[in-house]
Each structure stands twice: as C-alpha cells, then as structure tokens.
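Long-time lurker, first post. I've been practising inverse folding by hand and with some scripts of my own, and I keep getting stuck on stretches where the structure tokens seem ambiguous. Below is the full token string for one chain I'm working on. Before anyone asks, I'm not after the true native sequence, just a reasonable design that respects the backbone. If someone could post their per-position residues I'd love to compare against what I wrote down in my notebook.
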C-alpha cells in the first residue's frame, strides 16, 4: 500500500470524542518507550507525525491519524512506565480499556514488543486480556536494528516458546525496525488485507 496522505486528527482521553467510527482503524500499543510513535512515523514516511521521545511516557492521549482519507491509525500511551503514579495508572487503564473494548471500527490492535527483551509478564498479561475480551491483535517486534547478529535468529523462537505456554497458537507477528524500515511493507499489506473486508 502506498501512503499518500497522513494527517493528525484529534487527541483525547474520551472515546465519545474520537472521530466517527466509520473507517477501518488500527491501534498501536505496548510498553512505554517500545517505539510505537516511531513505528507510526516509519509507516507513514513522516519524521514527526507522532511525537517521539527518548524518555518513556511521551504519548499520553489517544491520538488519531487519518491515512489516505481511508483509515485511522491510532497512537496510544504506553503501559508499564514505572514513574507513573497509581492514580494516573488507573486513569490510563480506564480510558484505554474503554477505547479497546468499545471502539467498533477497531479492526486490529498491534501489540509492540521490544525484540531485545525476554518475554515480560506485563506484555503477556496484556495480550491475555485482549484474548479474553475477543479483541483481535498481532505482535510487532521493534528495534530489530539494535540486536546483535546472533540474537536476530534466536529472539523469536524464544518468544514463541513462552507464548505457546499460554496460547494454542501464535498470533500473527511482524519484525520491524523504525530506523531502517524493516517490516514496513509487510505491515502495510496486512492492514490493507484486513481493511478490504470492512463494512461500516
Ligand atoms: P511512549 O510514547 O513514551 O509510550 O513511547 P513510544 O513507544 O511511542 O516510543 P518512541 O517511538 O517515542 O521511541 C522511544 C525511543 O526509542 C526513541 O528514542 C526512539 O528513537 C527509539 N526507537 C524507536 N524505534 C526504534 C527502532 O526501531 N530502532 C532504534 N534504534 N531506536 C528506536
Ligand atoms: Mg509514543
């Protein structure tokens, strides 16, 4: 798929204020600093459509971007940011859960996982929650460029082994780097294929 236009639409914490749910929508979620905003910029060929930061906790709101006037891409705040207080965390959970559970045109959630790290409980639990609630998701491994060559072949089998202790089969997965564009075509083709079956 070719990205012709990508524009920011609105940010908020209230699902009733999101754009009308009349086009396919895809959300990006994962631990703080995993590379969600960078991936969105990589996919849309923009340097700073979504705001990026070296410090975790940059994205705080539900951010809608309209792509090719045909579908929405959504940047969500990260979870698992240690400095977030309990009150803030509960507030986050409330609006993100509500968004994920109620957004009718949300066709797939991309759960981002840093390919350098061992499987983390917080990610496994979050994917478990998506599964229990019947929310379709795929895994996107990020920052492949940061792996040593020896790790490039071994991180996925290791992750899969952990997942298969919980799941009967692996969800679809993508391996990406926002620095060098690895995985871009595969992700965009996947999005295009899902959107083809969408009827509002
Ligand atoms: P929050 O909004 O805080 O939840 O973070 P985020 O998941 O949106 O992460 P963001 O895209 O802001 O990136 C965090 C840091 O990781 C930044 O310093 C990015 O430059 C870096 N980064 C993201 N993706 C990649 C990648 O594929 N390769 C490399 N080398 N660095 C990356
Ligand atoms: Mg972000």
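-- Answer (accepted) --
I ran through it position by position. Result:
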């Amino acid at each position: 798929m070719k990205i012709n236009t990508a524009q920011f639409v609105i940010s908020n914490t209230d699902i009733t204020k999101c754009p009308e749910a009349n086009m396919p929508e895809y959300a990006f979620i994962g631990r703080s600093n995993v590379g969600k905003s960078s991936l969105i910029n990589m996919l849309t060929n923009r340097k700073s459509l979504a705001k990026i930061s070296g410090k975790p906790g940059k994205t705080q709101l539900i951010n809608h971007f309209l792509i090719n006037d045909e579908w929405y891409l959504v940047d969500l705040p990260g979870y698992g940011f240690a400095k977030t207080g309990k009150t803030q965390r509960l507030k986050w959970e409330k609006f993100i859960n509500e968004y994920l559970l109620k957004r009718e045109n949300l066709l797939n959630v991309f759960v981002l996982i840093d390919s350098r790290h061992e499987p983390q409980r917080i990610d496994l639990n979050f994917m478990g929650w998506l599964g229990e609630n019947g929310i379709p998701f795929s895994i996107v491994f990020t920052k492949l460029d940061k792996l040593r060559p020896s790790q490039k072949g071994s991180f996925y089998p290791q992750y899969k082994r952990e997942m298969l202790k919980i799941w009967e089969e692996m969800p679809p997965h993508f391996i990406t780097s926002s620095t060098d564009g690895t995985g871009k075509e595969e992700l965009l083709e996947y999005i295009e294929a899902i959107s083809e079956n969408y009827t509002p």
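A couple of notes from the structure itself: Residues 86-102 form the longest helix (17 residues). The chain has a mean pLDDT of 92. Happy to go over any region you disagree with.
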